[in-house]
Design a protein that fits this description.
binds magnesium ion; binds adenosine-5'-triphosphate; D-Maltodextrin-Binding Protein, domain 2; alpha/beta; 2 domains; single chain
Length: about 210
């Protein structure tokens, strides 16, 4: 494709992305929450948006099926970032990754006595690195959603998940026992496209940069 393709996911990232794209004169022709279309035209003839799962954004950009994408640091760390240039932290979709456990579970004591802990998470790569660095013995259990349920159902002692207000943890009687890192969303660019389509991409990247809060 001669124009630019941008990979975006629905949900919280999309909403916060709109003002940044608008700064580059890019306004999607339809709301992906309402439309079933997966390819959406924009106010610019040379720009289209593809709607993919949040965790698939880096893959589309890595293989050049999209030139640009917006993805959370959580998703990028799990993907590994191969083939991606990450020029901008967009300062949107901010939250933190943490270890959480049931309010009645003494996580610190379990760690001190060197217990082996079952940890349920969507973020296997980040969790593995975190616990290895702390010397905590863990069995990692991969889940695709609703991590909060795992300790309540007896699947795991603790979880690694994203938290913003903490209300979901609270509603499930879980407490944050360790913070792992701050998370926000980043612009990702296909490395080959950045060279081949430089005249098209550079002004878009610059306009987005200028609109970051
Ligand atoms: P899917 O629903 O397709 O499985 P997802 O659940 O990861 O994907 P979202 O919940 O929209 O999709 O999350 C997208 C991104 O938003 C995450 O990768 C993360 O960077 C960020 N995010 C997730 N939870 C929060 C939160 N509570 N507050 C702020 N940002 C968040
Ligand atoms: Mg979701």
């Amino acid at each position: 494709m001669s124009g630019i393709t941008i990979a975006l996911s629905k949900g919280r990232i999309f909403e916060e992305t709109l003002p940044l794209l608008a700064a580059a004169g890019i306004v999607p022709a339809e709301d992906p929450e309402k439309s079933r279309k997966l390819i959406i035209d924009t106010s610019r003839d040379d720009v289209r948006v593809v709607i993919v799962r949040a965790s698939d954004v880096p893959t589309y950009v890595q293989y050049g099926a999209a030139d640009l994408g917006i993805a959370g640091k959580d998703v990028l760390l799990e993907h590994g970032g191969v083939g991606l240039y990450q020029p901008l932290d967009l300062n949107i979709a901010k939250c933190r990754m943490c270890v959480a456990a049931p309010a009645g579970f003494d996580y610190a004591a379990a760690v001190r006595r060197g217990a082996r802990l079952r940890i349920a998470t969507k973020y296997i790569a980040v969790a593995r690195e975190h616990f290895a660095a702390k010397g905590v013995h863990v069995d990692l259990i991969k889940l695709y959603g609703s991590m909060e349920l795992a300790p309540l159902a007896g699947l795991a002692e603790a979880i690694v998940d994203l938290v913003s207000s903490g209300s979901t943890l609270k509603a499930n009687n879980l407490v944050e026992v360790e913070q792992i890192m701050s998370i926000s969303s980043r612009l990702v660019v296909n490395q080959a496209a950045l060279k081949m389509k430089r005249e098209l991409l550079q002004p878009v990247i610059a306009a987005i940069e200028g609109a970051i809060k």
